[in-house]
């Protein structure tokens, strides 16, 4: 199998390294097309893949093409892509907001997969939801699943419209956790701690809580109750959250993210 990646940014590079590390593809069968000289120089030093500056006819010799450019940069690349694509090639897009039908129309190409990864993929702890064109075979779905799971976990979604919700939940999700951790650390500072001490307490607590969630069969409500003693400190904090309507605010915030994802989809059409 030969794989070409269009775009040598964070996610494109993440996939390239993951494919080689997982023995999915040999370095000589992996191509990254990256227009920026500085990035090409860095990638060349790492020796992850073959490198080219621009799209050319050699792209037609690859089985899978991963489009990892910014959505706003995609249309400018379409004329060159259309010239070299072959009907047998499978295209995997990780561009936020651009639908399968839009890509099919622009590229005049049927075999399209749309995926939404998140940044923990860089460490092998990502979660990527993906959906496929209606004519995709089970073999193709299996291949895509295998490729995406080199960076963490993958989940197949039958309904493409749900990828906007995926964007809101997991695509943008890491930033929400960083935001909450940031303010927990700030609370520690305001209570008299040095920032490194507060940061260690908060980050390790978050890691430990994740492990409990991952290994327990209890519901989240039960886990909360296990920490929140009647009349205790945890209950005081939770009561403040409830009084300030934090839970509903979180839900509304994620719905705002989903709404913006849908707007981006329409703008890219």
TrEMBL record:
Keywords: Amino-acid biosynthesis, Cytoplasm, NADP, Oxidoreductase, Proline biosynthesis
Function: Catalyzes the reduction of 1-pyrroline-5-carboxylate (PCA) to L-proline.
MF-aspect GO terms: pyrroline-5-carboxylate reductase activity
Reaction(s) this enzyme catalyzes, per UniProt: L-proline + NAD(+) = (S)-1-pyrroline-5-carboxylate + NADH + 2 H(+); L-proline + NADP(+) = (S)-1-pyrroline-5-carboxylate + NADPH + 2 H(+)
Source superkingdom: Bacteria
InterPro entries reported for this sequence: 6-PGluconate_DH-like_C_sf, NAD(P)-bd_dom_sf, P5C_Rdtase_cat_N, P5CR_dimer, Pyrroline-COOH_reductase
Recorded family membership: Belongs to the pyrroline-5-carboxylate reductase family.
Principal EC category: oxidoreductase
Organism: Sporocytophaga myxococcoides
UniProt keyword Kinase present: no
Chain residues that bind NADP(+): 6-11, 68-71
Protein name, entry field: Pyrroline-5-carboxylate reductase
Single GO biological process annotation from the record: L-proline biosynthetic process
Location within or outside the cell: Cytoplasm
GO CC terms of this entry: cytoplasm
Domain Pyrroline-5-carboxylate reductase dimerisation, first and last residues per copy: 160-264
EC annotation from Swiss-Prot or TrEMBL: 1.5.1.2
Main location: cytoplasm
Functional pathway: Amino-acid biosynthesis; L-proline biosynthesis; L-proline from L-glutamate 5-semialdehyde: step 1/1
Domain (Pyrroline-5-carboxylate reductase catalytic N-terminal): residue spans on this chain: 2-97
